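S.,

Sequence below, as promised.
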Amino acid sequence: MRCWRRTPILLSLIVMLAAFLPAQEKLTTPLIPREVLFGNPERSDPQISPDGTQVGYLAPANGVLNVWIRTLGKNDDRAITDDKHRGIRNFLWQFDNKHILYAQDVGGDENWRLYQTDIASKQTKDLTPFEKVRVDIVA
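The prediction came back faster than expected:
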């Protein structure tokens, strides 16, 4: 008998809640595009040169992350690396202010090689051209 007395109250609560809940289509949020989550950043990892005259950063060149250099106080941004496959994920300045260094593996083999790029000539050298050897920059 007691259950029947509470039923109208429960029914009216359910009706009131249903009236305040938005329709199902309003709850659906569009998915974040994969390009936003996993795509290349516009610019990342800015680093000032040891002498304080230049800034380097990572940005896409033809859709692949490469190292760009800008003279501070000027708008002379230029890509100094020309990777076309995997992209460069990090770099560091060499203390002569004329070169940058970065590590990259060949085809995903996890055998990291050390590369040096001359800022003026944009020439890149593989400093560790050995098979099945891994380099790590520690300092």
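The chain has three helices and eight strands.

Coffee later?
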